[in-house]
Design brief:
This protein is α/β, with parallel strands linked by helices and 423 residues long. It has two domains: 71 residues, Tetratricopeptide repeat domain (Serine Threonine Protein Phosphatase 5, Tetratricopeptide repeat, Alpha Horseshoe), CATH 1.25.40; 259 residues, Rossmann fold, CATH 3.40.50.1460. 45% of the residues lie in helices and 12% in strands. The longest helix has 39 residues.
Amino acid sequence: MRVSPSSIATPLLAPLRQRALAIFAIPAVILALALSAAQASSQDNCGEGRDFVVQALEQIKTGTPSEVEAGLQLLKHANSVCVSSGDAWYYRSLFEGKLGRATNATYALGKAKLFGSDAMSSGANPFVLAAPPQPDLKTLPPIHNKWALVIGISQFQDPSLDLKFTGKDAKDFASVLVDPKLGRFPAANVHTITAGVTTRQLKEQLNWLARSAEPDDLVLIFLASHGTSRSQDTADVNYVVTSDTDLKDQDSLFSTSIAMVDISDIVRTRVRARRTVILLDTCHSGGAGIANRERALQVSESAPSASVLERISQGIGRAILSSSQEDQSSYEGAPFQNGYFTHFLIEAIRRNNGMDSIEQMFPYLRDQVSKAAATKSTTRGAYVAGAAPAAKSANLGQTPVLTASDIGGTIVLGAPVSGASGQ
């Protein structure tokens, strides 16, 4: 029998090869453990890192170089406190690319791919408007179809945060929308959710709107829940508390709630409808329980900041109604079985059978809410007994705010549709 030299050598060399591989594997194991330890250490501040990412995105309104540079510095800070934040690396690649720095953009994108990024997976891009301004467009064509997402979050992971009327607000408002004599929305196109609204579910429903609406459609988003604001470094960052938001510490709060900028970006960059109305009643409180947590977490009940509202309004046909100014809270209950904002919003729609524009409805809504709130001596938001001393000087009234793009205020909620009646 003939035997090749290699067949003899292989059994003899096998143990040596195994030992050599083991020796070479040691540095790789050490490197992997070091990277794991570094990432674990960085995770301690990843909630803070997420906050800086949100602040960076809020810098972008029209996309000027100064906005982009300011946002980029915040993204770099996000990675300095959380090196494994793939979203921060992904947005850094976009911001660097916007500034014409191709090498930096490629490097950041490689890091985003290494760590993984939800923003990258969804194709998020704050510099692209789904309904960009059209200077030559004077009027919009008739509404082809109408879509609405109506959310009222009344129950939370922490029962002390539960709200009495947000769920009812959503149901009552949705009833007006589908009324053939008022809102004239196709019932199949109105999604109403009032129980167990998780952060993921809210994002999924916003994505449903983005997928469904065409340019000549009308989109409406109604959202009632707790709203928070934290002042840190250069910006006030607004978050919406959902049913599964964890309030045990800052990292938990900001990683399990939905940033208002996320809602803003979906509307800015994915909703193609050139008539989009957002109704925000996001300043509620269940009492002293949340006030105590606000002080502990350095957050406060707050309506969306002016910068957030301005950001959402970019593009064409955007109108945003907030239930109060950013230094105010909102009222609910007696003498109404709703939030004050929702009660008078429904009344404003009924006044002309839904055929007044947002711009025409607003003065009545603003004046009636302000008048009703003026009879109250305390608010139902953060400014309760035992609240932080700084809160005592806050504005105790409630004044709704309208922010709109150039062709935003002419949107008529009750306008009939000219196309198909649902999907």
